[in-house]
Amino acid sequence: MYPEDLVKPMREELTSVGFKELKTADEVTSALSASSPEQTAMVIINSVCGCAAGALRPGARVAVENGIKGPKLLTVFAGQEAEAVAKVRSLCHGYAPSSPSIAFFKGGTVQSMIERRDIEGFNKLQIAEKIAKHYEQLA
Fold this sequence. Notes:
- This protein is α/β, with parallel strands linked by helices.
- Helices cover 45% and strands 19% of the residues.
- The protein has a 5-stranded mixed β-sheet with strand order 1-3-2-4-5, sandwiched between helices.
């Protein structure tokens, strides 16, 4: 686990634009089961790595600030809330565990995912575009 004072600003990059942090497996289950079958839930598996700092979090912020208002915005933090991260990963059938990553759920079932390999080497605007495309496909 990383010191909380180190990850606090990384958490706030997402929570400040409307993401809700989930810290336990029960919170993950509750948040995803509370979504209506028509509602998309976007779950970011946050991380301290460079691609999360340089692309994922900034890209997610751009996507939200540019109008991705429909999805339920959720986040868990790899290396911090192991139980919550493990629960999200257990629901991502067909996808290898990766962090950072973004899982898109509908009716509590994973529909698509932006994996680490889809984040590394891309900039924040490219990530925002990927988020928008995934969301549009599910809307």
